[in-house]
Amino acid sequence: MARTLKTTTIEGRIVRYIDAGDPSAAQVLVLVHAFPMGTAMWAPQFDAFPGWRVIAPALPGFDGSDAPGPRRNPAPTSDIDGYADQVLALLEHLQIQRPVIGGLSMGGYVIFGLMRRAPGVASAWILADTRTTPDTGERLAARHRTIEIARSAGPGAIADDMLPKLVSAHTREHKPAVVTELRRLIEGQSGDTIADATRVMMTRPESTAVLATVRVPVLIVVGEDDVITTVADAEQMRAQLADAAVVRIPGAGHMSNLEDPDAFNGAVRAFLGRVGGVG
Ligand code: MLT
């Protein structure tokens, strides 16, 4: 079901988010979106977890949120931890305490920022199709190309460039509606937002070490055919964590939550059943 974005103002900045699931539930699942889609990528998850409220924040610039601005504390810069600050500010604003926080890909990079900036904020974490390692070599060169395409040709050209890598061959062949929806989600964002987010991602730090500081349960989900953030990346994260399990989704690529919502939601539901009430 399509959801209406809510709008609020925090420290003078427009922040948009989806507030879904069970509105009266005390237990909250926060889902941080991937690049370069906004909150609507979580549509198959919004009503999938009975007894849970689901909040999906739009990162700076996405879905009409204000573009990146000064980080709250301390440096006047915009980086992946600045994105994490925006999620923290929204949780504070909504008076949400100790939610389970999940993110897919760029959403995962934001979670590493949350682990650095506010280690006690979550009662558990979900890391989907993401990785702790920064961009180097060819990936950095590709980021420069993405910025150039986003600024000169816009989101349609970004969709052309990214779609072949975002989903598995199985999804492309058997679930073409997923590809159509992904294009719609990408084309809904502006070229400037896409360029800004690319710059933020390409300057993100190495985040492997922060996993060793995590003291709460972690679910790692990965599409078996993900070529952007691979099963090996997922296993590498699991090895650093005290309490983590990897769920692999056969036939899915990078956008596992959209490519196989039943498998994705089943893994998350089982995890929420286990950690619900923690904290
Ligand atoms: C994403 O899905 O958020 C992006 O593919 C992440 C990335 O490009 O590193």
Describe this structure in words.
The protein is globular and about 45 Å long. Mean pLDDT is 94; it is low at 71-77. Helix 4 (155-166) runs antiparallel to helix 6. It has helices at residues 80-93, 106-117, 137-152, 155-166, 169-174, 176-187, 191-202, 231-240, 256-259, 261-275; strands at residues 6-10, 13-21, 27-32, 52-57, 100-104, 124-128, 218-223, 244-249. The two termini are 31 Å apart. It has 279 residues and is of the alpha/beta class. The protein is built from ten helices and eight strands. Strands 1-2-4-3-5-6-7-8 form an eight-stranded mixed β-sheet, with helices on both faces. 49% of the residues are buried. It has one domain: Alpha/Beta hydrolase fold, catalytic domain (Rossmann fold). Bound molecules: D-malate. D-malate is lined by residues 34-35, 105-106, 201, 228, 254.
Average pLDDT score: 94
Largest sheet properties: 8 strands, mixed
Question: What would you report as the Rg, rounded to the nearest angstrom?
Answer: 17 Å
Small molecules bound in the structure, each named once: D-malate
The helix count comes to 10
Can you tell me the CATH architecture? Answer: 3-Layer(aba) Sandwich
Order of helices and strands: EEEEHEHEHHHHHEHEHH
Question: How many separate domains make up the residues?
Answer: 1
- Principal-axes geometry comes out as globular
According to CATH, the fold-level topology is: Rossmann fold
Side by side, the strands of the main sheet go 1-2-4-3-5-6-7-8
